[in-house]
Amino acid sequence: MRTAHRVEKVRTAEAELMARLPDGALMQRAAAGLAAACADLLPRVYGSRVVLLVGSGANGGDALWAGARLARRGAGVHAVLLAPDRVHTAGLAALTGAGGRVADDPFDVLATADLVLDGITGIGGTGGLRPDAVPVARAARGSDAVVVAVDLPSGVEADSGEVRGEALRADLTVTFGTHKPALLIDPARTCAGTVRLVDIGIGPYLPSVPEVEALHHADVARLLPRPTAGSDKYRRGVVGIAAGSARYPGAAVLAVAGALRGGAGAVRYVGPAADAVIARFPETLVHAGPPAKAGRVQAWVVGPGLGEDADAVRDVLASDVPVLVDADGLRLLDPDAVRARSAPTLLTPHAGEAAALLGRARTEVEAARLASVRALADRFGATVLLKGSTTLVADPGTGVPVRADAMGTPWLATAGSGDVLSGLAGSLLASGPAARDAASAAAHLHGLAGRLAAARGVPITAQEIADALPAAWRGVRDPG
Ligand SMILES: NC(=O)C1=CN([C@@H]2O[C@H](COP(=O)(O)OP(=O)(O)OC[C@H]3O[C@@H](n4cnc5c(N)ncnc54)[C@H](OP(=O)(O)O)[C@@H]3O)[C@@H](O)[C@H]2O)[C@@H](O)CC1
Ligand SMILES: [K+]
């Protein structure tokens, strides 16, 4: 699992460790890791042209010390000083002592650079790149050089993943000690490129509960149900799907398709699309409705393609089992009914639906995804899965890390893809895990299924995502 901590926690941990070490030791660890990562990227260090973008803080110091190491190995290193009067003096002395130089003209050296180290700002930066840094950052990005961000891409908000102005998009980010939330959450994450973590020894001083966590295959594998010899279909869990309408029967079929691949022992469909569901999936138990009369289930999914059937939403929310609400269900739900529930509730909005639930603009939700998912979870007292290029899963209250999942691919943005996800997540929910675990496992499997279905770079249908789910289970359980 990758974990990310807030700046305040990183600074506290660094201070505790620094008090036990000689002056500058942590920066040397950071610079050594950074220089090694740069050396790995360059065909050869000797003779390569490296440009350092150096801001006013210790982030610039890291870049200068790493630049000194590369200069000692024969690289031609130029430093572009964005705040010459506040430069890290020891770092600059080390660079010049190793044969590096301060650039006379940033654009000249950037035009021929092989590698640019972005040390403008790290965890101390806020508010996007400043006006004097913008043309330099654009020239770096527009050059043929590979761009390596020091700790964070400059211009992003470390704690929230917001980008409030312009940021410098990197090919690789070398981060120190722990990930920062911005490296796991869009839109900042997309500026980071590949992320490499350098251990500088602060791990023991960081809180055990991070701000954000991202699950690996093995973490997800542990969340997936495994039937035992004593399991029957009821013990494995029955998931009820209240979805579809005369107008949108396909949503019911796709939600059932996801649910059948989610590990529940049986899928019970309730609603007006029973014929379409049975025609495609004869193993489904169908009932015309209402949900309250359909028979026992261990979890409900309500909403995909539901149209205007507010009664179905009300019925399902009145049940005493875990409930997932998606799509039309999110529009029709009564917030008080959600808050009054004692069994878990999982809401699965995309940014537009989240914006409607919060009474904000969609662009606001997209710009501040971490704050938005937490606000929704708190407002509804429910687990929330916010869809997007990274999926976020939050529980209400503080002290529980938000889960971020970047397994998805842009090809997943296709009609019906969300219906498959709700069926899948509901099916996992029926087998008994916490809503947060069911939601994050579902997001990961759904993302991997999308990747597998689109493996040859071709457009995919929602049905193909559902069909790839068994391969995604195998991929997660046996990544071999
Ligand atoms: N502590 C340690 O032991 C270790 C720390 N390490 C490294 O230190 C980094 C943190 O260093 P830091 O605290 O000096 O902050 P940093 O990110 O360099 O920015 C500082 C200054 O930038 C300015 N500024 C703000 N916003 C800005 C903007 N948008 N555009 C331009 N400038 C802006 C602002 O000054 P202002 O101009 O506002 O007065 C602020 O004071 C960390 O990310 C890691 O790389 C590693 O070596 C490991 C050991
Ligand atoms: K940086």
Throw out a few tags for this protein.
single chain; 480 residues; alpha/beta; Rossmann fold; UDP-N-acetylmuramoyl-L-alanine:D-glutamate ligase; 2 domains; eleven-stranded mixed sheet; seven-stranded parallel sheet; binds ligand NPW; binds potassium ion; Nnr; potassium; Bifunctional NAD(P)H-hydrate repair enzyme
What does this structure look like?
With 480 residues, the protein is an alpha/beta fold. It folds into 2 domains: 2-213, YjeF N-terminal domain (Rossmann fold, 3-Layer(aba) Sandwich), CATH 3.40.50; 217-477, UDP-N-acetylmuramoyl-L-alanine:D-glutamate ligase. Helices cover 40% and strands 16% of the residues. It has 21 helices and 18 strands. Strands 1-9-18-17-16-15-14-13-10-11-12 form an 11-stranded mixed sheet, with helices on both faces. A 7-stranded parallel sheet has the order 4-3-2-5-6-7-8, with helices on both faces. Helix 12 (310-317) links the parallel strand 13 and strand 14 (323-325). Helix 18 (417-430) crosses helix 19. The longest helix is centred in the last third of the chain and has 19 residues, at 435-453. It binds ligand NPW and potassium ion. In the N-terminal section; belongs to the NnrE/AIBP family. InterPro entries: Carbohydrate_kinase_pred_CS, CARKD, Nnr, Ribokinase-like, YjeF_N_dom, YjeF_N_dom_sf. Keywords: ATP-binding, Isomerase, Lyase, Metal-binding, Multifunctional enzyme, NAD, NADP, Nucleotide-binding, Potassium. Its cofactor is K(+); Mg(2+). Homotetramer.
